[in-house]
Amino acid sequence: MPRPAADLRPAPLAAEPMLPRAFRVAARRRETHDVFTLELEPADAPGEAFAFEPGQFNMLYVLGAGEVPISISGDPTRPGRLMHTVRAVGGVTRLLEGLKKGDSLGVRGPYGAPWPVLDAEGRDVVVVAGGIGLAPLRPLICQVLARRDRFGRVSIVFGTRSPADILLAKDLERWRSKFDVDVLLTVDHAPPGWRGHVGVVTALLPRAAFDPANARAFVCGPEVMMRFTVQELAHRGLPAASVHVTMERNMKCAIGLCGHCQYGPEFVCKDGPVFRFDRIERIFGVREL
Amino acid sequence: MRTLEPTLAEHPFFRDLAEDYIRLCAGCAKNVVFKPGQYLLREGHKADQFFVLRAGRVQLQMEAPGREPLTIQSFSEGDVIGWSWLVPPYRWAFDAKAVEATRCLALDGACLRKKCEANHDLGYELFKRIAAMMERRLHATRLQILDVYAAPGR
Question: With an 8 Å Cβ cutoff, are B12 and A160 in contact?
Answer without folding.
Answer: no
